Amino acid sequence: MSDIWSYANPQLKDLVAYEPGKPIDEVARELGLEPGEIVKLASNENPLGPSPKAVEAMRAALEHAEIYPDGGGYRLRQAIAAKFGMEMGNVVLGNGSNEIIEFVGHAFLKPGDEVITAQHAFVVYKLMATLFGATTVEVADPGFKHDLEAMAAAVTPRTREIFIANPNNPTGTLCGQEEIDRFMAKVPDHVIVIFDEAYYEFLDEPLDTLKYVREGRNVVVMRTFSKIQGLAGLRIGYGLAPKHLAEVLQKTRQPFNANALAQAGALAGLGDDEHIERTKAVNREGRDYLQRTFGELGLDYIPSHANFVLVKTGDGDDLFQYALRRGVILRAMRSYQLPEWTRVSVGTMVQNEKFVRVLRDWLGGRVA
Ligand SMILES: Cc1ncc(COP(=O)(O)O)c(C=O)c1O
After folding, report:
1. Atom of ligand 1 lying closest to residue 236 CA
2. Would you say domain 52-272 falls under CATH 1.10.10.920?
3. Pocket residues for ligand 1 (CB within 6 Å)?
4. What is the DSSP string of 127-184?
5. With CB atoms counted within 10 Å of each terminal CB, which end of the chain scores lower, N or C?
6. What residue owns the CA closest to ligand 1's atom 6?
């Protein structure tokens, strides 16, 4: 039999599949636990679940599951545009915001192009760059924070995209407005800047990158319903871009990439400010508790602007396995070249306290 790689796209050979948080059902199956006993703090999900309004809207939409979704996403795109004082033509829906990363790749990348990211940025940017045969230029991020000046300095004639994850996953770090403005003043037109704002709604202070969309710069701002909206299972996110750029992205989309339940749930969730405020409050309390506890335990951690914390536990793989057996799913960071670190999502206080008990026991066992 001939070698499949003699005719498959060669760049795929180096492509490593994305390693998601371990699913609750899988852990239950493997360890003989009840799914209800397991706490998942591995994928930065909303521990309160979706807005009750979103659930109600999805139930109603379920009754009409025989009908294809609105391929143009009219109602949801209108609502998103209205929320930001934009027009529907500025909004592109994605099957999760991850799909927007792929759209930008389809639209702008070809083999030999360069994509600039921070060294510890969300890994999907690199996976997508590889998929399209582009080279990822990873710029050092001292203190785990994007160095925007160095990223702007890394631009060459071959650069097509720069990703700014703000706040970044897995580090939780944030670039401020002034840094962003200085950076944007330097970036040339042939480079598409993608601000990935998956955790934007958790920020305490506003940050404005949408002004660059309004100014017509070659910018895509990505947001998602997976995090604060608690709709990760639906796969729905969006990009905001100037019309000339959004039109290009629309051409890369499958006809019904945003499903009908997702559109209905997202639309209802968008209008539920109360749920968002409640989620923010739970997150603030839980994040403070986790960070305080890490401090008391003498563990280094990166102060977070999002709904998770990166903490230097030592041997993240071992802690991951230990916690798993105790029914807590964490995220080891070896795939980010951070084997000594663990990322933990902020849960409810009951979940956070369970995690801390497990962490203390693990640390105790290591000292003994
Ligand atoms: C920084 C960042 N961007 C994008 C995503 C993708 O989210 P989704 O595809 O669920 O919208 C995630 C998910 O963890 C993320 O952390």
Report:
1. 11
2. no
3. 44, 96-98, 122, 165, 169, 196, 198, 224, 226, 232, 237
4. HHHHHTTPEEEEEP-GGG---HHHHHHT--TTEEEEEEESS-TTT-----HHHHHHHH
5. N
6. 98
pTM above 0.85, yes or no: yes
CA of 240 to the centre of ligand 1 (A): 15
| Distance from residue 198's CA to the centre of ligand 1 (Å) | 6
Determine contact, residues 172/125, Cβ cutoff 8 Å: no
H-helix or E-strand spanning residue 361: helix 349-367
How far is ligand 1, taken at its centre, from the CA of residue 261, in Å?
A: 19
Kindly state the tokens that stand for 101. 């990363």
- pLDDT, tens digit (0-9, with 9 covering 90-100), for 286-345: 999 999 999 999 999 999 999 999 999 999 999 999 999 999 999 999 999 999 999 999
Say if residue 18's pLDDT is above 80: yes
Domain boundaries, the chain: 4-49+274-367, 52-272
